[in-house]
Amino acid sequence: MSLKLHYHPLASFCWKALIALYENGTKFEPHLVDLGNPEAAAAFKALWPIRKFPVLEDDARGALIPESTTIIEYLDRHYPGPAPLVPGDPDAARDVRLADRLYDLYVHLPMQKIMTDRLRPEGRSDPHGVDEAKATLLTALGILDKDMGRRTWATGDTFSMADCAACPALYYGNIAVPFTSTHKNVAAYLARLQQRPSFARVLEEAEPYFKFVPRER
User: What is the DSSP string of 124-163?
Assistant: First the structure.
């Protein structure tokens, strides 16, 4: 098989790439990497020294593609399916890319800061950094709540790369800073995302690992 995805079922940015693959029924070999296994960790570091998930290998084209957004753009160009995730129209594509960045940078990354801080040993937490992350996340949610009052999906009526980004950002974001009672439109959007077959499949595959998700102390 030409495509191999190096990933972990609990890793949030991996969800984004998996959703894109499942949306279009793209055939690929899933390669789960256990970074707790020294041999697996060493092999992944040799492949991609940054050691961040996900990474896509394309043997047919001799390409190595890290980063979830880049992976989705690559798939759309070289392995297109029935549902393009980046529109062909330049203006619509710009809107999708902007929404993708908004979810990744201002929802996803602050969420990760909050969640990973919960994994720190007692006395090693970063309360100031967490407060900043919460402020950024809430600001972004305020913007999104206005947008999603008049949209079905992230940028309109069509599911896109931006929705792939929104799935993990909002799902874990609601664990980091629960928003279902304060941001009704975003909460309704998250509910629609969770009903999407591609995301439902990702959640089902991740379910055995949810016991490792850090909750608030």
Answer: ---HHHHHHHHHHHHHHHHHHHHHTTS-SBTTBSS--HHH
pTM (two decimals): 0.95
* Sign of the four-CA dihedral 176, 114, 164, 42: negative
Q: All domains of the chain, ordered by start, with CATH?
A: 3-78 (3.40.30.10), 90-196 (1.20.1050.10)
Q: Determine contact, residues 197/22, Cβ cutoff 8 Å.
A: yes
**What is the share, in percent, of the chain residues with pLDDT greater than 70?**
99
Which amino acid type is present at position 94?
A: R
Q: Do 11 and 68 contact (CB within 8 A), yes or no?
A: no
Calculate the average pLDDT of the chain: 96
pLDDT tens digits, one per residue of 28-70: 999 999 999 999 999 999 999 999 999 999 999 999 999 999 9
**DSSP letter (8 states) at residue 49:** T
Please answer whether residues 39 and 64 qualify as being in contact, where contact means their C-beta atoms are separated by less than 8 angstroms: no
End-to-end CA distance of the chain: 44
